Amino acid sequence: MTADELTQPDASPEAPAPSQRGLMLLLLLANASMLAVYMGVGSVLLPLQIAAIDPANKVAVLGVIGGVSAIFATAFNPIAGALSDRNGRRNPWILGGALAALAGLGFIGSVDTVLLVGIGWCLVQATMNVYQAAVTAIVPDRVPVARRGTASALVGLALPVGGTVGVMIASQTTGRLTTGYLVLGALAAGAALLLATFCRDVPRPRVPAPAVPKRERLAAFLSALADHDFRWAFIGRALLVLGYFSVVGYQLYILDDHIALPDGLEPAEAMAVLTPVSMAAMALSTVVGGLLSDRWNRRKIFVGVSAALAGAAMAIPAISPTWTGMLVFSALNGLGFGCFMAVDTAVVTLVLPRAEDAARDMGVLNVANAGPQIIAPFVASAIVTTLGGYTPLFVIGGVLSLLGALSVVLIRGVR
């Protein structure tokens, strides 16, 4: 038994080996549908709706809505994770979160003011993070340590698959936003229902509520950050994700206002071309990186190099704001980000401080994943409006990704 196996949460012995393939497929579907919502709504539908309501202030409005909704995303993920740890179940939180998100997406599609759109997106972020916290915890619950890299690679395919599906659905419903919102919400609800039906909860001991003051409970939520390796994994993930989504979240406006597109190609149509390019590259590096990291039992080199590649790719559209430049950027950035997310997820499961707090601590880690995705529009809008355009946005996004690569070096307990 390795040191990692001695110190990390093992999969439950009640999860039989023959069920692993089915479990991985269901997790891929659950994560892909979640990311279809995040990418389809966040990258296409929400920017289009805001631009239609207030075209003159679209950059600032998108930033404000993103910043406010970040509070909900950041708070609900670790709270939901801790609550699912406490009652010993995942499926009720997965199904409840997805159904509530479907209702929230329907609400957004039915309103036509900035305020109501913002309220609706906050509700969707809160409920989708309830869903995400419980889904994420299934990997440390039920997947053996020796298979974490492979499992993370398969689950990591959710971003290219879900991102492509989400953007394609959204780009086909630009004239029918309500339909787009409802279809994406229905995907998440359907995936949650399948997971809850065919992947029944593994019985877990209920954790009684501690009789401690609220201040101490809050400290317990964040206690994993006191662990050296977990803290640097958190920082590296947050920096890379912030750099990536600061650009990707504004890609529709970048294509409209910054890139010289070929004649007759509209920004939403360009998104439908760029997304499959990026996601195909992401899928390739996700699978190859995850499998090789398991075979060689090396994680840090994959995470560091891929983060550096994602950061370096940001220089291309800054130097060459052309359609060709965006195609090359999308491919290279997809390669770097896909490998990073696949192998970094394995790293995180290997530095969790305590098995009994796996969902809570993965929920804290998900703050580094979900929080920056929602904060990114606020950061991007501030950069674009104060520094005078999208070129500084690419430069700062690249710097953040490179800093994320450097953070990986400081992790000690993983090779």
From TrEMBL:
PROSITE patterns for the chain: MFS (PS50850)
Membrane topology: Multi-pass membrane protein
Top-level taxon of origin: Bacteria
CDD domains: MFS
Domain Major facilitator superfamily (MFS) profile as annotated: residue spans: 24-415
Spans through the membrane: 25-53, 59-80, 151-169, 181-199, 234-253, 273-292, 301-320, 326-352, 364-384, 390-411
Subcellular location: Cell membrane
InterPro entries: MFS, MFS_dom, MFS_trans_sf
Keywords from the named record: Membrane, Transmembrane, Transmembrane helix
Primary subcellular site in the record, as a coarse category: membrane
This protein's name: MFS transporter
